[in-house]
Amino acid sequence: MTEPNRRAGAVAERSGELAALDRAHQVHPQHLDTDQGQPVILARGQGAVLWDVDGRRYLDGMSCLWNVNVGHGRRELAEAAAEQIGTLAFANNYIGFSNEPATRLAARLAELAPGDLNHVFFTTGGGESNESAFKLARFYWSLRGRPEKIKIVSRLGGYHGVGMGAMAATGLPAYWTHFGPLPSGFCQVPPMSAEALEAKIVAEGPDTVAAFIAEPVQGVAGVLPPPPDYFPAVRAICDRYDVLLIADEVITGFGRTGRYWGIEHWNVVPDIIAFAKGVTSGYLPLGGIIFSDGIRATMHAAAQDRFMHAYTSSGHATCCAVGLRNLEIIDQEGLVARAAVSGRRVDEALAPLASKPYVVDRRGLGLMAAVEFRAGSGIAGRALAEARRRGLITRSREEHLMLAPPLSSSDAELDEMTDIFNAAVVAVAG
Ligand SMILES: Cc1ncc(COP(=O)(O)O)c(C=O)c1O
Predict the structure, then answer these.
(1) What residue ranges do the domains of the chain occupy?
(2) What's the rounded Cα separation, in Å, for the pair 409 and 49?
(3) Ordered strands of the 400-403 beta sheet
(4) Does the C-beta of 402 come closer than 6 Å to ligand 1?
(5) Other beta carbons within 10 Å of 101
(6) Atom of ligand 1 lying closest to residue 127 CA
(7) Is the distance from CB of 353 to CB of 371 less than 8 angstroms?
(8) d(CA 414, CA 303)
(9) Is residue 219 within 6 Å of ligand 1 at its C-beta?
(10) How far apart are the first and last CA of the chain?
(11) What architecture (CATH level 2) is domain 75-332?
């Protein structure tokens, strides 16, 4: 055997062995055995490019899970983590303790957040952030002497995570199957109608509703931005009925939509922002909520009532140190403005698909984009597989095919992604 052939054989053996071990021992998020027959086993990343253990190159058209905003392989983030781990990797953040990275990151997030959102509670991911937002909303109303305000209203198509509360708020029934009964106190409204929200609050009884949660742009459902007057109307309705507004910025935060926060497109200030993903660009798990001076003042006034809500890793020193460095990169490289410009580039590149008879819609905001195909056509799933075969990782849901590249992607990388995206669609649909 020649040397290159021997090397190729050794690599194939490695990926084959890993795939077999994986099938035998790992249960994956959204697990289905047939998905794991030949998993893509990723090994390395640089910028918007990933390589698998066999050395195959892929463009990362989804920033992995909408989260690797600054791109892969950043030495600065590795160094920030190493420095913090070598100094104090983890510290108790409960009851009378704190640590410098958590404090500095909370202060920075308060600076970045709109309006009077100045107070941060850390979690380790998006679902925990939403659970924390729901519990904070109930805590707030209970402290205000209105303990019957408990219900959480959310939107059909919304995705908020998979813990019991976040799952119940998630408006995608596929996430409920086999896991019932759902906790009570959650209900949904159609996604883009402020009138429907008002009618729901009135029907449920405003005295029983604690909060309304919405993603500024629905991500998982298929990149659905709202009509321009939606969030201003929602804000007014929430004010009218004393309902807290929670913006789930888990995908849309940290520049993804071309503004720092998605909700800023409509000049609306929510009462609570839930964040995760882009805060560390996925380098370490971190999330949290940022909430208003008013909620904080209520906590302060009720000095004897402890907020009995906590995670061991809340304010994790290393995760927060990486978060701080990641936010510096976003600033230094102007990635929020770049996402707006790159988003227009992606939109223009996908425009030719709009004239295809099988394309129903094309949408996007900043670096979130989706093409929607005719119901029942099966094009999205086939194009997803074809794009992967051609070296682009993207994502589909039902008849939507999505694209959400790292904010740091070069123009050449974006063009290569959209070329493959278009070619894959045409190859499977004509
Ligand atoms: C809008 C939104 N909220 C919450 C979550 C849940 O985040 P996690 O998976 O970190 O719990 C996600 C995950 O994709 C999300 O897109």
Answers:
(1) 40-70+334-429, 75-332
(2) 9
(3) 359-365, 368-373, 400-403, 395-397
(4) no
(5) 24
(6) 11
(7) yes
(8) 52
(9) yes
(10) 43
(11) 3-Layer(aba) Sandwich (3.40)
The class that CATH gives domain 40-70+334-429 is: alpha beta
Task: Provide the whole-model pTM.
Answer: 0.97
Bridge-partner residues for 154, per DSSP?
188
Integer CA distances (angstroms), 45 to 59, 112, 304, 393, in order: 10, 29, 49, 13
Burial 115-130 (b: 16+ CB within 10 A, else e): ebbbbbbbbbbbbbbb
How far apart CA 405 and CA 390 sit, in angstroms, is 16
pLDDT, one tens digit per residue, over 277-325 is: 999 999 999 999 999 999 999 999 998 899 999 999 999 999 999 999 9
Q: How far is CA 265 from CA 225, 229, 230, in A?
A: 10, 11, 11
- The count of other CB atoms within 10 Å of the CB of residue 215 is 28
Closest C-alpha residue for ligand 1 atom 8: 126
Ligand 1 contact via 251 beta carbon (within 6 Å): yes
Domains 40-70+334-429 and 75-332 share a fold: no
Report angle CA 387, 22, 55 to the nearest 5 degrees. 45
Pocket test for ligand 1, best of 220, 224, 250 (most atoms within 8 A of CB): 250
Q: Is 220 in the pocket of ligand 1 (CB under 6 A)?
A: yes
Taking only the tens place, the pLDDT of each residue in 14-53 is 788 999 999 999 999 999 999 988 899 999 999 999 999 9
Q: Under a CB-based contact definition with an 8 Å cutoff, are residues 363 and 404 in contact? A: no
Whose structure tokens read 């062995």?
Answer: 17
Residues in CB range of 359: below 8 A, 6 or more apart = 353, 371, 372, 373, 374
